[in-house]
Amino acid sequence: MRVGVGSGNPVKATATERALAGRDATVEAVPVESGVSEQPRGRAETVEGAENRARRALAAGEFDLGVGIEGGVATLSGVGGRFLIMWAAVTDGDRTGRGGGPSLRLPDDIAARVDAGEELGPVMDDVLDREGVAREGGAAGALTDGAVDREAALSSAVAGALGPFVADLY
Fold first, then answer.
1. pLDDT tens-digit profile of 12-65?
2. Beta-strand (E) ranges in the chain?
3. Which residues 6+ apart lie within 8 Å of 4 measured at CB?
4. Burial of 58 per CB tally in 10 Å (0-12, 13-18, 19+)
5. Alpha carbon of 104 to those of 21, 65, 67, 74, 147: distances in Å?
6. What pTM, to 2 d.p., does this model score?
7. Residue 61 gets which letter from DSSP?
8. Is 80 exceeded by the pLDDT of residue 159?
9. CA dihedral defined by 82, 119, 67, 143, rounded to 10 degrees?
10. Do 39 and 134 form a contact (C-beta atoms < 8 A)?
11. pLDDT tens sequence across 110-134
12. What distance in Å separates the CA atoms of residue 150 and residue 109, rounded to the nearest whole number?
């Protein structure tokens, strides 16, 4: 099975490989546009970005499945604070599966900067005084002291989105 991942970020391709472990699958990174803002806000925009990436990746080559992964920030009903959220979508052109990764509360000072219009990735680079946090452990790794890194968090979202394509229950 050939799988196109709608991103040039190697962490997203590796997360997809991890979700497909044990299956006969070849994963290829396919840089595509998300069609949403650079910093998606809210669950709906984050899911829309993942779906757009999945469809565009599928259309970009001879793939059996297209995978889209999108990170965003959101407030969650009934829960205080601003959260980092992760969503994935998988499509074969006819069906689309969706899955969410962990939701991680942002520290108030980081949330304030995101609310003021900054993107989370560069904010995390600044706060951690490092470049390319999003291509390493990501905000997820920093927020959990390494207990859950970005690859693991995104892999769980992809695994959930793969459900309709790998489980007989659907």
1. 999 999 999 999 999 999 999 999 999 999 999 999 999 999 999 999 999 999
2. 2-5, 26-29, 65-76, 79-91, 96-100, 104-105
3. 28, 30, 57, 58, 60, 61, 63, 65, 66, 67
4. buried
5. 25, 28, 22, 10, 12
6. 0.94
7. T
8. yes
9. -50
10. no
11. 999 999 999 999 999 999 998 888 7
12. 21
pLDDT tens-digit readout, 79-102: 999 999 999 999 999 999 999 999
List the structure tokens of 142.
């920093």
Residues 68, 7: Cα–Cα separation, whole Å: 8
Q: Can you give the residue ranges of every domain in the chain?
A: 2-166
Pick the CATH number of 2-166 from 3.50.50.60, 3.90.950.10, 3.30.230.10, 3.40.630.30: 3.90.950.10
Q: Could you write out the DSSP letters of every residue in 128-150? A: HT-S-GGGTTHHHHHHTTTSS-H
Distance of CA 154 to the CA centre of its chain: 5
Mean pLDDT for all residues in the chain? 95
